[in-house]
């Protein structure tokens, strides 16, 4: 039986992670390592300069005061007695589309998984709701997890999955779309005269392009985007080689 490691950034009590665990528990031995509270937008941060705590709260379920990345890193590097066959992040409460994946703790779970050489998937339900209906999302997670366990993924590739509120029952293999942000800095003066700052402004929109994750979600498809971490721009390497000969300091 496959060994499945599950984590998230919404905390271990979130409906999304509990739906995910329930959806895959009959196809593998599920271990949960999750933050004890909300850690959304923590990106790929991990605890380098301070120790963190892990507490076992039930059979194969552990919580930590660390980050989503900590959950995967510490679990795989020593806290689990078995190496996972697959790492699953989510189901996130809210979409992770376009550039948003760079901020996402849910996607960071999958990133850490592939850094450790384990096939990984991040799941997100795109609507922000207090009590979302995640029945369909759970079915998607179960099907895709089983498929990846069956066929595998190329080394260094994760799948970023977004599930719409009103699905048409089909999937699309997509590329990341482009967000349009309209953020602004909001200053608030406290009673003691001190200023604190938050990010405000209008909600972001997206550039309408066929084949993107945004486009698929708008049309009711489940969006599945393969992501790799080869950040190097090989075209620019060739274009910038002339600088090696011109360098003088």
Structure write-up:
The radius of gyration is 20 Å and the shape is globular. It has 249 residues and is of the alpha/beta class. The chain contains seven helices and eleven strands. It has a nine-stranded mixed beta sheet, sandwiched between helices. The termini are far apart. The mean pLDDT is 91. It is 27% helix and 31% strand. The chain has a single domain (2-177, 207-246), classed as Survival protein SurE-like phosphatase/nucleotidase (Stationary-phase Survival Protein Sure Homolog, Chain: A, 3-Layer(aba) Sandwich).
Task: List the SSEs and their pairings.
Layout: E1 2-7, H1 15-24, E2 28-35, E3 54-58, E4 61-64, H2 68-79, E5 86-93, H3 105-115, E6 120-125, H4 135-151, E7 157-163, E8 171-173, E9 179-189, E10 195-206, H5 213-218, E11 222-228, H6 234-240, H7 242-246
Superfamily at the CATH H level? Survival protein SurE-like phosphatase/nucleotidase
Report the portion of residues in β strands.
Answer: 25-35%
SSE string: EHEEEHEHEHEEEEHEHH
Distance between the termini: 60 Å
The CATH architecture category equals 3-Layer(aba) Sandwich
| Topology, number of strands | 11
Bulk shape = globular
